[in-house]
Design goal:
mainly alpha, 2 domains, 58% helix, 3% strand
Length: 302
């Protein structure tokens, strides 16, 4: 485990909980190791401004891990929530897209503010989080950052469980599809024109199929591949196929990504098979995916 050490009155501070802090000698040669640099950035270099301020104001803080766990659970949890989504996403997400997806997960009207407030202190670790343009894609500036936060022994309280992040993204994507997909989503005047013949199709896509919705349309199934069967997700999928399936195909077609439908249905069939026997309704959805495959082949040929 990577250890973070604090010194009070020239003495090493002992641990309070969980082995986050342990007593050691005055040798701080490992403080500049990459893992410890990440810990220092996250805790002391304003990544968590409230935590940083509190720690600097108390010379006798005994346990960093204990202190953060007890006093800053919301900040710590939001960090894992947002960074997990950034790392689990199959293409870079922007602050705007993250806010949209978070709002679908939590029904939090303050989602954009909480996303910005958390990420803007991570400018030394993530790209574009300090920009005034909230549509720019965010990626880690160092590949080792992903390795650090996904290794529980190294990152401790900042550990990001990618399986949890995939589950959160799957739920957010499906909720977004259920809420926002609708018939003739781009408001085309005629259904007789091929997509390539619609002169202003690109501007319509930008307006009516924003990046978060586009991401949800294209990648919800990829997140399923990292998850076991669960009834909550199944319920959303069942509603999607019963009420919004053709709208989803329409959106893919408009974006030029209709070919993704076939692989999505295959991934869904595999995921459903992992929950065989848990619900009689599974069989009905399997039959729906078969019919859906016929629908996607029809659109590909049209």
């Amino acid at each position: 485990m990577t250890i973070l050490y604090l010194f009070t009155n020239d003495r090493p501070v002992p641990t309070c909980r969980g082995g986050v802090l342990k007593p050691r000698s005055h040798d701080t040669s490992d403080w500049d190791s990459r893992d410890n640099q990440y810990l220092r950035v996250l805790v002391f270099d304003r990544s968590f401004p409230l935590v940083s301020s509190a720690l600097r104001g108390s010379k006798d803080c005994i346990g960093l891990g204990f202190y953060i766990e007890e006093n800053f659970k919301d900040e710590e949890g939001l960090f894992r929530f947002l960074v997990g989504r950034l790392l689990a996403a199959f293409e870079p997400l922007s602050i705007h897209s993250l806010s949209t997806l978070q709002r679908r997960a939590s029904d939090d009207d303050n989602a954009p503010n909480s996303v910005v407030e958390t990420l803007r202190y991570l400018g030394s670790l993530l790209s574009n989080v300090t920009s005034s343009d909230d549509t720019l894609p965010i990626v880690p500036l160092h590949t080792s950052f992903r390795d650090f936060v996904t290794n529980e022994e190294k990152s401790s309280i900042f550990y990001v469980d990618l399986r949890v992040a995939h589950r959160q993204l799957a739920h957010s994507c499906l909720s977004l599809l259920l809420d926002d997909l609708k018939f003739n989503i781009c408001g085309l005047e005629s259904s007789y024109l091929a997509n390539k013949d619609v002169e202003d199709l690109e501007s319509r896509i930008v307006k009516h199929l924003p990046p978060a919705l586009s991401y949800a349309c294209r990648f919800w199934d990829d997140h399923l591949e990292h998850l076991d069967f669960e009834t909550d997700l199944f319920g959303k999928l069942q509603t999607l196929f019963e009420k919004k399936f053709m709208f989803w195909l329409e959106a893919l077609s408009l974006m030029g990504d209709l070919g993704l439908a076939s692989s999505a249905l295959s991934s869904l069939s595999v995921w459903l098979a992992s929950g065989e026997g848990v619900s009689i309704a599974v069989e009905s959805t399997k039959r729906a995916t078969t019919n859906s495959s016929d629908g996607s082949r029809f659109l590909e040929q049209s």
